[in-house]
Amino acid sequence: MKVGMAGASVMLLPWIDGIRIASDLGYDGFEIFGESPQAEIDFISEKEREEGKRIAEELGIELLVHCPFNNLNIASLNRGVREESVRQYLSAVDFCAKIGAKVLVVHNGEYIIDPTIGDMGAQVKAIQWQLNLDALKRISEKAEGAEVIVCLENCNFVWNKIEKSIEDLVKIKQAVGSENLKFTLDIGHSRLAEGVNQALKVLGKEIRHIHFTDNFGKQDDHLIIGEGNFDYSPFLDFFRSFPFVITLEVVKLNRSIEPAKRSLENFRKIINKNERNR
What we know:
The protein is an alpha/beta fold and about 280 residues long.
């Protein structure tokens, strides 16, 4: 089990500072928040990319990248918006390859829900479903060449996401047809949708990365681990045996290291306490 620090927990700090903080706090990995204010990928110089890679290698920190997603939609009916969204995903693949990150977390697109569409809604959704697949095929193909794993995150708790169920994620992977397309399981998202047990059952061995989060079961809070009421106990054996990075995904628009520090401390208590009680 490797534990990663979320760049989103120190969102106002530059990504290279985040790598150093992750190392100082005792994390094994760092998931870069791949957009403003932490890391605007298109505007990161070659020199900075090389520096980030060097520092991560020297400190022994495994890097992951969360692809930009705000205002993007890889399934948009507007070709200009869609192509720009795909371009930014492809740019994120290049960024991963340059800094030595092996995992890129991505989101599916979103449906355009407009009452004026009327009874054409089903046909429009079918078009957008295919546009989403076409985009992911392009992204996965580029990622294969760059030796980057694309991890599709479960966001089906969001009302207008392309995937309406956890099963849809499997259908999307099968349709894309790339072994390079895996899953990031966000357990907080699952709690707000089908439940973690069902997500584990359906996604199974295709899970390549985990977002370990906390909330109160009503919204996607991304709290400091241990400050919500998530009952992790039924899934601890899975987490302990997971061979890849588990990112403690806390979201804070600040510069303080305290959320990441406390989350790691509480995570270790959760894992170790239950281990001793077995």
